[in-house]
Amino acid sequence: MAYKTIIEDDIDVLVVGAGLGGTGAAFEARYWGKDKKIVIAEKANIDRSGAVAQGLYAINCYMGTRFGENNPEDHVRYARMDLMGMVREDLAFDMARHVDSAVHQFEEWGLPIMKDVKTGTYLREGRWQIMIHGESYKPIVAEAAKNSADKVFNRICVTHLLMDDSKDNRIGGAVGFNVRTGNYHVFKSKTVICGAGGASNIFKPRSVGEGAGRVWYAPWSSGSAYGLMIGAGAKMTQMENRIVLARFKDGYGPVGAYFLHLKTYTQNCLGEEYESKWFPALTEMVGKEYLDTENQHLSHKPIPTCLRNHAFINEVNAGRGPIHMVTMEAFQDPHLEEIGWHNFLGMTVGQAVLWAATDVDPKYENPELTTSEPYVMGSHATGCGAWCSGPEDVSPDEYFWGYNRMSTVEGLFGAGDAVGGTPHAFSSGSFTEGRLAAKAACKYIDDGKAAGIMVSDKQIADLKETIYKPMETYTVGRNEIVAGSVNPNYINPRQGLDRLQKMMDEYCGGFGVNYMTNEKLLQIGLKKMAILGEDLEKVAAEDIHELLRAWELKHRFLTSESVFQHTLFRKETRWPGYYYRGDAMNLDDKDWHVLTVSHRDRATGQYTMEKAPLYHLVDDE
Amino acid sequence: MPTFVYMTRCDGCGQCVDICPSDIMHIDKTLRRAYNIEPNMCWECYSCVKACPHHAIDVRGYADFAPLGSSVRVHRDEEKGTIAWRIKFRNGQKDMELLAPITTKPWGECIPKLANESAPANDMVNSELLFNEPKYVAMNDSALPTLQSNKLSLKEGVYY
User: Which residues of chain B lie closer than 8 angstroms to A48, CB-CB?
Assistant: First the structure.
């Protein structure tokens, strides 16, 4: 293989993946590390990468402390309720107390934030959401990251993190390859901030054929946050907490602004409100503390996202689908109609394309909704990710080991989807987490914690061989057959992805089985996963682009394996509407009011699972 | 809704290749023009459509659920700070033009270089504060909230 090895040495802060979390990290690192070498490695182009590449029409996490609207603890209680109690509240409080300062800076940089003309406050979509014209959200924050970084390496697919050969469980950098030139890139670094993304496309999507890219989370969100960190031996938390979204059918256009700002609502095919009739039985499953049909309205606690999904799924199963979004009332107001369309153009253009193609004018027709396939990520109404330390002044002992947002691997930090237990961070909260991680990473270096890192030539050479192996496999196996994609000795990345998605769907609770699984199914699934793992050693890549897909698949595989293990471990149904354990259909606060934490041994691949205590923010007497 | 490229408009400049988040816009080696090599990994995010200087890239809805015949076109202008959309329905009965701002400032000029900021003092380094804090938290001089300031404790157990 004629690919060059390009070594970038003496890096202090390496940002792997520069979406909102990574750009926040790179930006902030310069302030705390004036003389430090800050480098970004990103598999696409940071001007349009990550989940916000397309833009956003709202910032979903903004306290508005400036306008006397909310305190950080209010947001923590909201996230706790929405996630059925399962939140790292130290991390959530920390994110919420800093998040407004990120948003105020975005406004100074030129991000158009809509204002309430009467009050002068930002225009609220809901209690936590503010409305923006965010088509250029990502290019604007990317500019800030570029202003801070010494170097930005676009189009580098980072495949592995480097480990220190002189001290166990300490990070030493990262490696990957350039998806244009194919060259091998080695980044030797004192710290790594993982800003890579969560996972779309690990459960079989509802769309088929050409439409398989029409997923809710970006198709380029390949679970690399988890693949990289699990691969480095970092502990993970709440990986069972996948999310299912109720969205406009096929296009997966967002519904937040529709519900909250346009005041649209849902009904079944008979034009009836359907949610409330499913709630009494649901209260039996989860307990009155989580769903109080009589007092929920009065207590101002929102009904958790998963429980609303549950009502949707059951109504459709009862034969009264489809569920419609009632837009015909709101869209008679031309101003609201315009907002409805702008909302899609700003963040999910595909939904506008679909309605134009199918002549769906929401002014005269109520569009259909659907529940999506599950996704694994950590910044929306779900909190999958690495088990990270919290801030010194907030966290209890079990949640604190020296540096904010540092994983259980020394010198490896996370932001955004990478950090577990911090749902409802969204774009602004992810950026904020990046900033927090950057400050902590600089302190880690200044405290001398990164002294004496040694990355051996052997580790670098071995990883090079590993990275290009799929191309070698192709070259060797290709000539055995006449032509085509059917080969007895290898599978291509698409074939591997199809197998993974089918397995996740059928054994781990995808849409195809109505989000249902149980211990037997999970064990069969894990057995099949082990064999898929063996076959992925024989994945073949015809060219560099396919090599990118091969490594994305391997990251998705590691993510999925972790989801299986966590789902098997938690013997209860904590989030009806996200997934069901058929063998334990009730929520069980006696045994499972805990966070799940996993560790995958780097040498053997064996998983060990443990329960971690849950701490909640409580008012002092 | 995968993208496609009009043969007569593309000059092979590669702007779309450079920007595509999914790495699916590539240059055809024979025709030396761009095309979508992997439509089922396209999010219809329009990054390439917006970046194309010749409006050579368009989107045709995903074949598995979108009929032919409609159009959603866009022109993004960093100098004017606007993005202009035109949505045409398949049946021709709706034809909308929508305009939105993409920035409120001259493009790229108002983003700070933190290297030029004075270095943080030691007490700030040892605090929980980030750049521009505490001022930017509430745009006044109030301090960063803590558990103590907000009269809170973290307690282990079952609380709702």
Answer: 19-21, 45, 47
Identify the structural domains of chain B with CATH numbers, from first to last.
1-66 (3.30.70.20), 68-111 (no CATH), 115-146 (no CATH)
Residues of A in contact with B14 (CB under 8 A): none
* pLDDT grade for A124, boundaries at 50, 70 and 90: very high
Average pLDDT (A94-122) is 97
Q: Does B107 touch chain A (CB under 8 A)?
A: yes
Rounded to two decimals, the pTM is 0.98
B64 and A210 in contact by Cβ < 8 A? yes
Q: Domains in chain A and their CATH numbers? A: 246-371 (3.90.700.10), 481-591 (1.20.58.100)
Proportion of chain A above pLDDT 70, given as a percent: 99
**Contact B44/A359, CB-based, under 8 Å?**
no
| Residue contact A396–B156, C-beta within 8 A | yes
Whose tokens are 């799929």? That residue is A470
Sorted by sequence, the CB contacts under 8 Å of residue A546 that are 6+ apart come out as A470, A474, A492, A493, A540
Predicted-assembly ipTM surpassing the 0.95 threshold:
yes
Q: Which residues of chain B make contact with A131, given a CB cutoff of 8 A?
A: none
For residue A621, pLDDT beyond 80: no
Q: Is B85 a catalytic residue?
A: no
Residue A462 has pLDDT above 60, yes or no: yes
Give residues 311 to 340 of A whose Cβ lies within 8 Å of B: 338
User: Using an 8 Å Cβ cutoff, are A208 and A137 in contact?
Assistant: no
Query: H-helix or E-strand containing A312?
Result: helix A305-315
In the sheet that holds B71-77, the strands lie side by side as B71-77, B82-88, B95-101
pLDDT of residue A511 exceeding 90, the answer is yes
Of A111, A349, A393, the CB nearest to B146: A393
- Whether residue B153 and residue A66 make contact (CB cut-off 8 A), yes or no, is no
Residue A293's pLDDT band (cuts 50, 70, 90): confident
Residue A451: is it exposed, middle or buried by C-beta count within 10 angstroms (0-12/13-18/19+)?
Answer: exposed
DSSP state of A432: H
Cα of A228 to nearest chain B Cα, Å: 19
User: Measured between beta carbons, which residues in chain B are less than 8 angstroms from residue A62?
Assistant: none
Name which of A442, A421, A417 is nearest A430 in CA terms.
A417
- Whether pLDDT at A241 is above 70: yes
In sequence order, which residues have a C-beta less than 8 Å from that of residue A391 and are 6 or more positions away?
A90, A94, A400, A404, A436, B128
CB A221 within 8 A of CB A42: no
Report whether pLDDT(B108) > 90: no
